[in-house]
Amino acid sequence: MVDKILEISLLYDFYGSLLTNKQKDVIELYYGDDLSLGEISETIDISRQGVYDLIKRSEKQLYYYEDKLKLVERFMEQKKKIKKAYELLDSLGKSDKIDSIKELLSEVL
Prior knowledge:
Blueprint: H1 2-15, H2 21-32, H3 37-44, H4 48-69, H5 71-91, H6 96-108
Helix pairs in contact: 1-2, 1-4, 2-4, 3-4, 5-6
């Protein structure tokens, strides 16, 4: 479940602005604030089933955007490459230039 929470959170960070306001609200309440379906139902005044359906539609929409745009996939690949570059620099030893480059890479990560 933790993996799904992280995955949806990452997708939401990239594509959340493409969702409707109601979809944003339920994703934030469910994944961000960790509210139950019942609590969300009372907060936004729709049935528990309506909340569940809205969450599932919102998740499906986020996965659809990622399938088409691949922004999260590219982000994760770039992050791995930057981390690898940092490790390679680390293996070269110490110098002011290397330390400066490592500092910049750390900021990017």
